């Protein structure tokens, strides 16, 4: 007995159906719900509300178009040669986080797998000038950076570390981010593959990789999950952004640098003057550059 095939609507079909009913809705809104013009206040507010709804529709359509172009980017297969894997500088930015919290993050970083562990250089970048954090770094056998001022905030802190290191790849972690042991082995191969593909190719024709953003998973539920008592039933907003939208944005070369859990090309960073210091959203701005 043959199993019945399950028919699924394609994403373009869903988009066209949604667009049709949205157009129908807006025709109804304009034709039957806008207040009379001889009531100026009501008319004005009615138009404002209509514009807000229209902006929401445009945002929905743009998001739909982005998701329709989502592709799969499997981990490249590269030769299993330790010499192919470059040195990596791992920066853990901190200001006032506790030593106990930082211990967990550093411990996770030290357990990251790599063909040659001597090529993984971990640094606590302490903008709080704290002796206990310096002691923690020494006990865990990793590097420690601080500076005389806090100019440029987090971006300035990372630039201070960037100026004292030289590995071709840089990892940025927030103080409370604990990487999986496979983090480097699931990110570095993309850069190695890029370098190998570009060997002998004219610079204008090269496919260059500036940074690779990975998901961030949080222990605490987001507001929608929490207030709806639906932690296991409602999708996490952060997961949707990092695991769906960011992947789809790869196709348009518009991935957002999320500030943490990111592998970055030093060459790309230095070409734009390092981490951008003139905005509170230094990660977003640096990624754009």
List the helices and strands and how they pair.
Layout: H1 11-32, H2 40-68, E1 88-94, H3 99-110, E2 120-126, H4 131-139, E3 143-145, H5 153-162, E4 169-174, H6 188-198, E5 211-213, H7 223-227, H8 237-249, E6 262-265, H9 266-271, H10 282-288
Parallel strand pairs: 1-2, 1-4, 2-3
Antiparallel strand pairs: 4-6, 5-6
Descriptive report:
With 289 residues, this protein is α/β, with parallel strands linked by helices. Helices cover 43% and strands 10% of the residues. The protein has helices at 11-32, 40-68, 99-110, 131-139, 153-162, 188-198, 223-227, 237-249, 266-271, 282-288; strands at residues 88-94, 120-126, 143-145, 169-174, 211-213, 262-265. Helix 4 links the parallel strand 2 (120-126) and strand 3 (143-145). Helix 1 packs antiparallel against helix 2 (40-68) and helix 2 crosses helix 8.
Question: TL;DR of this structure?
Answer:
The chain is α/β, with parallel strands linked by helices.
Question: Features of this protein?
Answer:
alpha/beta; 6-stranded mixed beta sheet; 10 helices; 2 domains; globular; 6 strands; 289 residues; Spore Coat Polysaccharide Biosynthesis Protein SpsA, Chain A
């Amino acid at each position: 007995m043959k199993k019945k095939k399950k028919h699924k609507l394609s994403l373009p079909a869903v988009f066209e159906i949604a667009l049709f009913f949205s157009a129908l809705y807006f025709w109804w809104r304009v034709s039957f719900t806008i207040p009379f013009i001889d009531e100026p206040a009501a008319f004005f507010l009615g138009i404002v509300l209509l514009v807000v709804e229209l902006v929401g529709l445009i945002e929905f359509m743009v998001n739909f178009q982005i998701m329709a172009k989502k592709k799969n980017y499997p981990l490249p297969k590269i030769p299993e040669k330790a010499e192919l894997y470059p040195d990596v500088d791992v920066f853990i930015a901190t200001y006032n986080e506790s030593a106990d919290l930082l211990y967990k993050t550093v411990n996770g970083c030290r357990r990251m797998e790599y063909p040659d562990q001597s090529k993984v250089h971990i640094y606590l970048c302490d903008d709080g000038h704290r002796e206990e954090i310096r002691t923690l770094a020494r006990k865990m056998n990793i590097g420690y950076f601080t500076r005389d001022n806090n100019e440029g905030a987090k971006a300035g802190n990372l630039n201070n570390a960037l100026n004292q290191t030289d590995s071709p790849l840089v990892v940025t972690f927030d103080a409370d981010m604990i990487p999986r042991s496979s983090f480097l082995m699931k990110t570095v191969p993309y850069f190695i593959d890029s370098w190998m593909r570009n060997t002998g190719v004219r610079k204008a024709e090269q496919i260059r990789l500036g940074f690779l953003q990975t998901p961030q998973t949080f222990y605490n539920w987001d507001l929608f999950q929490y207030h709806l008592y639906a932690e296991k039933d409602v999708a996490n907003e952060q997961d949707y952004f990092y695991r769906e939208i960011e992947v789809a944005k790869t196709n348009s070369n518009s991935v957002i640098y999320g500030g943490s859990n990111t592998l970055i090309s030093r060459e790309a960073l230095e070409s734009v003057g390092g981490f951008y210091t003139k905005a509170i959203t230094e990660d977003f701005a640096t990624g754009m550059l």
